[in-house]
Design a protein that fits this description.
The protein has 8 helices and 14 strands. The protein is α/β, with parallel strands linked by helices. The chain has 2 domains: 83 residues, 2-Layer Sandwich (Alpha-Beta Plaits); 148 residues, 3-Layer(aba) Sandwich (Rossmann fold). Strands 10-9-8-11-12-14-13 form a 7-stranded mixed beta sheet, with helices on both faces. The protein is globular, with a radius of gyration of 18 Å.
């Protein structure tokens, strides 16, 4: 968790029909923890931004991106670090993400059932907490795959997919993100879940030139299409690929981009799609 830093309380308002797009936008920018405030019309969300170096540029870029979805960003005030932590405790609770995976904030009590795999994440440290449908869909497809010796997590964000893969028995993970904030956050989350020794988190945006038994890529359709040749090349024979962040109207486009692979799974929720593929052994 970030310490000894002040936070900005930020409000996002937008039409209700932009909820899915804006939720994904916040997760993509590693601001996945937010509180929904009741509104008679439209939506109103509140989230917190740490006042670390570059926060003005980051908030400005977020405002421009939100405007493309008719969203408006407004800073409501400054919050001390200790107050920020207490504010989140009211809204952030254990949540079952899949049949086996449970998300638990560090301060919350949770009685795990036999077979449960508990991911410990805190808001602010855990931007991208699995609340968005695209993340849950990827986790559900991941739960159906066998453990893999070598895993690649492209666009790792909070590192939640990497953590889930390791908890499910995979050997080692290479997690990559082009955002330095995400790199720091993912490293911290892996450390909090005592998985650092089995993972490395690297800055970058290119697919490594090696082979992996499992590749996770919860991005967006356009990026997946562009990266399809590199992701396919990096997948070992018999390996599995899980992709998410796909608006349902672009699912066929992504399927076409990965036509060299065999589709083996699909999940849909709230207008979002995740897909699972396998590379033929021969």
């Amino acid at each position: 968790m970030t310490s000894s830093v002040d936070w900005l309380e930020v409000e996002l308002t937008a039409p209700a029909d932009q909820e899915s797009s804006l939720a994904l936008l916040l997760e993509r920018r590693h601001l996945g923890g937010w509180v929904e405030e009741p509104e008679t019309e439209g939506l109103r969300w509140v989230f917190y931004v740490p006042q670390e170096p570059g926060w003005k540029e980051r908030l400005g870029a977020l405002g421009l991106a939100a405007a493309e979805h008719d969203g408006v960003i407004k800073v409501r005030g400054q919050v001390r670090d200790e107050d920020w932590a207490e504010n989140w405790k009211e809204f952030y609770h254990p949540r079952r993400l899949t049949r086996r995976l449970v998300l638990r904030p560090s301060w919350a009590e949770f009685q795990a059932e036999p077979g449960d795999l508990v991911i410990e994440l805190d808001p602010g440290m855990a931007f991208g907490t699995g609340y968005h449908a695209s993340t849950r869909l990827c986790l559900e497809l991941l739960e159906e795959q066998p453990p893999a010796a070598r895993v690649l997590d492209m666009g790792t964000g909070s590192g939640i997919l990497s953590i889930a893969a390791l908890l499910m028995g995979s050997g080692r993970v290479t997690a990559i993100d082009c955002d330095p904030v995400a790199v720091r956050v993912a490293r911290e989350n892996l450390r909090q879940n005592r998985l650092s020794r089995r993972a490395r988190v690297l800055p970058g945006e290119n697919v490594p030139r090696t082979r992996y038994d499992l590749i996770l890529a919860n991005l967006i359709a356009q990026v997946l299409v562009e990266m399809a040749p590199d992701l396919t090349r990096a997948l070992a024979p018999g390996g599995h690929l899980i992709v998410g962040g796909i608006i349902d109207t672009r699912a066929d486009e992504v399927l076409e981009a990965f036509q060299g692979l065999v589709p083996v799974g699909r999940g849909e929720e709230e207008g979002w799609v995740a897909l699972a593929f396998q590379r033929p052994c021969a």
